[in-house]
Specification:
Elements lengths: L2 E4 L1 E4 L2 E8 L17 H25 L6 H15 L1 H14 L3 H17 L4 H5 L1 H15 L9 H4 L3 E4 L4 H9 L4 E4 L7 H9 L3 E3 L4 H4 L5 E5 L4 E4 L3 H22 L6 E2 L5 E8 L4 H8 L4 E5 L1 H7 L5 H14 L5 E4 L28 H7 L1 H14 L5 E5 L5 H21 L8 E6 L2 H5 L1 H7 L2 E4 L1 H9 L17 H17 L3 E3 L2 H4 L4 H6 L4 E4 L4 H9 L3 H12 L4 H12 L1
Helix pairs in contact: 1-2, 1-3, 1-6, 2-6, 3-4, 4-6, 8-9, 14-16, 16-17, 19-21, 20-21, 25-26
The structure holds phosphoenolpyruvate and magnesium ion.
Phosphoenolpyruvate binds next to strand 11 and helix 20.
Length: 576
C-alpha cells in the first residue's frame, strides 16, 4: 500500500528511485574520569583526532570535481577553518583540565556551549550555522572513537533516494558525485545546508519529513516531488505513470529553455525587455552566467556583512565590489547600499540598545545608514571608486521621503570631497537609483523619478508594507498576495512615473522572478526585470511568446478590477 509523507520542498524536481536509509554512525559521547597525570596524553589524543578530521576533509575536497562551484567548496573550507579554530582544540583541552574528563566528553561540552551561542542569534540563517559546529564535532568524535564514518558505497547510491536525519555538506557533495537521485531529511529548513546545496546542485530535495527513517522501508520504491514537498512510498502504477510523465516533461522543458541562453528577450511585437540577475555575493555571478550573459540588477551587499557578522571597511568593500565587476566582464552591476536591520542584523549591533518592537518598521536600510554615516560613507566611497572601472550603479533601499534623498545627496557630496582629497580614482557621475518598496515612495514615485537616474520596485517589502503583513511570519503568510489591487496600483503608479520622466524602472522583488506574473507586468508596461538566476530562461521564454500591445489592453481590465478572485482568474487567462 502507498504511503504519502509531506515535508518542505526545498529543491524542485521529480525523482523516482529506491530508498537508501543513510545511517550516520552514532557519536554518543561517553564520559569518564581522566586523572591529572594523564591530561597531557588525553589532550594529545584530542589533537590527533582533530588532525585526522582535517585530513579526511582535505581528502574529500581533493576528490570533488574541479568545476564544483566556489560556494559549495566553501562549505568544506568552512569546516576546515573551524577545525583550526582554538575553540575546538584549546577550548576542549581546557575542559579536560578543568573537569578531569575524557576528550569525547570535553568536546561535547564545548559543542553544547557553541551551539547555545548560535541558538541565541536572531538571524535565522546564522542560527542554522550551528549545524556546522555539530558536524565538525561529530567528525572529530568519530576520529576519537577510531570509528570510520559510515561511508556510502558508490555503487549502491547511484539513482537512489537518500533518506537521513540530516546530512553534512561533505556527505551531500560525495553523494552528488555518486549520482543520487534525491535527498529527504527529517530535519532542516529551507536555509539548512542540505537545502542550499541541493538547490545549487540541482538535486530534488525535501526537508522536515519527520520520522522518515521509520516510515520508509529500506530499498522501497519512492517518488519525490521537490516542488510540493511530497514523498510517495510504494507508489501504485497510476502514480508512477503520472510522475514519470511529469519528470519527462520537466527534462524536455529545461532542454528547450537552454536554447534561450544568451538570446535576447523580445516580445512578439518587437519590444526588447532587459532581464538581469539578483545576487548576494560576487561568487553568485558564476551561476548567473550559466543562465545568461547578463548584468546584475540587484546586489544585496548586506549579505557580506551578515556572512562576516561585522561591518567591513571601505577597502574590503571596494575589493569585493571590484571582484563582482570583473566577473561580470563588462555587464552592468547595480550595487544596493546596506539594507541592514529587521531580519538582517549583525552581531556587533546586537545588544546595543533595546530590541525594536517592530523591527521591519524600525531603523532599517537607508534610515539606519543615515543614522550611522560612519558606516554609510565607507560604502558609498567604495561604490563610487569601483564605478570608475565599469558600469556600476548605486541603488538606495527603502526610500520613504524626498527629505531622505536630500540627506543622501549631501552625504554623496561629502564622500566625493573625501575621495578628491585622498586623490583616489572614482566616478563622480555614478548613476543613483531608488528602490520603491514603501507605499509612500510609490505614491511619490513621480518626484523620485525626477530626481533619480532609475527606480527599482522591491515587491517583497512593498507587499509587506502595503498589506501590513510581516514577510517572515508564517501565520500571516496566506495573506501575502502580489495580486492585491492595492499592490498592483502602486506598481503601476511607479512604472508610469518612470515612463513620464523617461527614467528606467525595474522590478527586483520576487514578483519579477515568478513566471505567473510576467505577462501581467509586461502589460503594466514593465520592461526591465531583475530576477533569480534560475528564473531567467523561463521568464525570457514567456516574454518571447507574448504580445506587449495585446497585453496592455487585457491588463487595463485587470487594473480596473477590485475583486481579488476575479483578478486571479484574469491573470490565469493571461497565462493560458
Ligand atoms: C524587495 O523588498 O523586494 C527587495 C528586493 O529587497 P529585499 O528582499 O532584500 O528586502
Ligand atoms: Mg526590500
Amino acid at each position: 500500500m502507498s504511503i504519502i509523507l509531506n515535508g518542505i520542498g526545498v529543491s524542485h524536481g521529480i525523482a523516482i528511485g529506491n530508498a537508501y536509509i543513510y545511517v550516520r554512525a552514532s557519536t554518543e559521547a561517553t564520559e569518564y574520569n581522566v586523572p591529572a597525570s594523564y591530561h597531557p596524553k588525553e589532550i594529545e589524543r584530542l589533537h590527533q583526532a582533530i588532525k585526522e578530521a582535517s585530513t579526511q576533509l582535505n581528502e574529500i575536497k581533493s576528490r570533488i570535481a574541479a568545476d564544483t562551484p566556489e560556494d559549495i567548496l566553501g562549505f568544506i573550507d568552512s569546516h576546515l577553518l573551524m577545525l583550526e579554530d582554538p575553540a575546538f582544540d584549546e577550548g576542549a583541552a581546557a575542559i579536560i583540565r578543568e573537569f578531569s574528563c575524557n576528550a569525547e566528553w570535553a568536546l561535547q561540552v564545548q559543542c553544547d556551549r557553541l551551539v547555545q551561542v548560535f541558538d541565541e542569534m536572531d538571524d535565522p540563517y546564522l542560527r542554522t550555522r550551528k549545524d556546522d559546529v555539530i558536524h565538525v564535532v561529530q567528525r572529530i568524535q568519530h576520529c576519537l572513537a577510531e570509528k570510520p564514518e559510515s561511508k556510502a558505497e558508490p555503487v549502491k547510491l547511484k539513482g537512489r533516494i537518500v533518506i537521513s536525519d540530516d546530512l553534512t555538506p561533505a556527505d551531500t557533495l560525495m553523494m552528488q558525485h555518486q549520482k543520487v537521485a534525491a535527498f529527504v531529511t527529517e530535519f532542516g529548513g529551507p536555509l539548512s545546508h542540505t537545502a542550499i546545496l541541493a538547490r545549487n546542485l540541482g538535486i530534488p530535495a525535501i526537508v522536515g519529513v519527520h520520522n522518515a527513517r521509520q516510515l520508509i522501508h529500506p530499498t522501497e520504491q519512492l517518488i519525490i516531488d521537490g516542488h510540493y514537498g511530497v514523498v510517495i512510498g510504494e507508489p501504485d502504477p497510476r502514480s508512477l505513470t503520472h510522475y514519470r510523465k511529469l519528470r519527462q516533461k520537466d527534462t524536455v522543458r529545461k532542454q528547450r529553455l537552454n536554447r534561450l541562453i544568451n538570446k535576447p528577450a523580445v516580445t512578439k511585437d518587437g519590444v526588447h525587455i532587459l532581464i538581469q540577475g539578483n545576487i548576494d555575493r560576487p561568487e553568485d555571478i558564476r551561476n548567473l552566467k550559466q543562465h545568461d550573459n547578463t548584468g546584475v540588477g540587484l546586489y544585496r551587499t548586506e549579505m557580506m556583512f551578515l556572512k562576516d557578522n561585522q561591518t567591513l571597511d571601505e577597502e574590503a568593500q571596494f575589493k569585493t565590489y571590484k571582484r563582482a565587476l570583473f566577473r561580470l566582464k563588462g555587464k552592468p552591476l547595480t550595487i544596493r547600499t546596506l539594507d541592514l536591520g529587521a531580519d538582517k542584523e549583525i552581531q556587533e549591533s546586537l545588544g546595543q540598545g533595546p530590541m525594536a518592537h517592530n523591527p521591519a518598521m524600525g531603523l532599517r536600510a537607508i534610515r539606519r545608514c543615515l543614522k550611522e554615516p560612519e558606516n554609510f560613507l565607507p560604502q558609498i566611497c567604495a561604490i563610487m571608486r569601483v564605478a570608475a572601472y565599469g558600469d556600476v550603479k548605486m541603488m538606495i533601499p527603502m526610500m520613504t521621503s524626498i527629505h531622505e534623498l536630500d540627506q543622501v545627496s549631501a552625504l554623496l557630496e561629502n564622500a566625493k570631497q573625501l575621495l578628491r582629497q585622498r586623490k583616489v580614482r572614482f566616478n563622480d557621475k555614478i548613476e543613483i537609483g531608488a528602490m520603491i518598496e514603501v507605499p509612500a515612495a510609490a505614491l511619490s514615485a513621480d518626484i523620485f523619478a525626477q530626481r533619480m537616474d532609475f527606480l527599482s520596485i522591491g515587491t517583497n517589502d512593498l507587499i509587506q508594507y502595503t498589506l501590513a503583513i510581516d514577510r517572515i511570519d508564517d501565520e500571516v503568510n496566506y495573506l501575502y498576495n502580489p495580486l492585491h489591487p492595492a499592490v498592483l496600483q502602486l506598481v503601476k503608479i511607479t512604472i508610469d512615473a518612470g515612463k513620464k520622466a523617461k527614467v528606467p524602472v525595474s522590478m527586483c522583488g520576487e514578483m519579477a522572478s515568478d513566471p505567473k506574473y510576467t505577462r501581467l507586468l509586461l502589460g503594466m508596461g514593465l520592461n526591465y526585470f531583475s530576477v533569480q538566476a534560475n528564473a531567467i530562461l523561463e521568464i525570457k521564454h514567456i516574454i518571447n511568446n507574448s504580445n506587449m500591445g495585446k497585453l496592455h489592453t487585457k491588463v487595463r481590465k485587470i487594473m480596473n478590477c477590485h475583486d481579488l478572485n476575479k483578478i486571479e482568474s484574469l491573470v490565469d487567462t493571461l497565462n493560458t
